[in-house]
Amino acid sequence: MNRPTSQAINSPVPVFAFWVYLMSDLVLFASLFATYAVLKDNTFGGPSGAQLFNMPLILLATIILLTSSLSAALALQAARLGNQAGTLGWLGLTFFLGAAFLYLEIAEFSKFVGEGHGWQTSGFLTAFFTLVGTHGLHISLGMIWMLLSGVHVLMRGLNRHTALRLGQLVTFWHFLDVVWIFIFTIVYLMGVNQL
């Protein structure tokens, strides 16, 4: 089995590639926000965000996701200190909080569809489902990454390479939290305060 050499681990290429990916995600979300801004008032006679959004539920989801950002940072700190059990514990909590957030998002989508307000109902709902759903998809991918990272730590232990990869995972997770703060503000808060 070929192990990566220390030169390969220290190579700037994987780090650069990660940042290129993250910037491409930034462009993706910027375009989705722009699309939402254009279509948010196109309800086609259907309900608006003010009529649909359950703000206590959304606030709970926001608190859960922001808390998961803290637990992700603590997982990385534990990894840097060489604490394998702490790393796995904090990663596990982050995964659990991500799953709880995703459950609330899916429950919201299911409720809207069950009431006859699916993505095809209006331009507003198409933009809403696309933007929020894309964020949810990224949360799902982050959770898969977390599982794989946890298995890697469990099987191979902690080293510089693992800490680097965990740092990228945590950066990705923080990025998703920042995107959610914009979604919470632009979609939900501004949506319920429409005239």
UniProtKB/TrEMBL annotation:
Transmembrane segments: 12-37, 57-76, 88-104, 124-148, 169-190
UniProt superkingdom: Bacteria
Subcellular location: Cell membrane
Gene Ontology cellular component terms for the protein in this record: plasma membrane
Biological process terms in GO annotation: aerobic electron transport chain
Membrane topology summary: Multi-pass membrane protein
Keyword annotations: Cell membrane, Membrane, Transmembrane, Transmembrane helix
Domain Heme-copper oxidase subunit III family profile: 16-192
Molecular-function GO terms, alphabetical: cytochrome-c oxidase activity
Main location as per UniProt: membrane
Record-linked InterPro entries: Cyt_c/ubiquinol_Oxase_su3 (IPR024791), Cyt_c_oxidase-like_su3 (IPR000298), Cyt_c_oxidase_su3-like_sf (IPR035973), Cyt_c_oxidase_su3_a-hlx (IPR013833)
Family: Belongs to the cytochrome c oxidase subunit 3 family.
Protein's name according to its UniProt entry: Cytochrome o ubiquinol oxidase subunit III
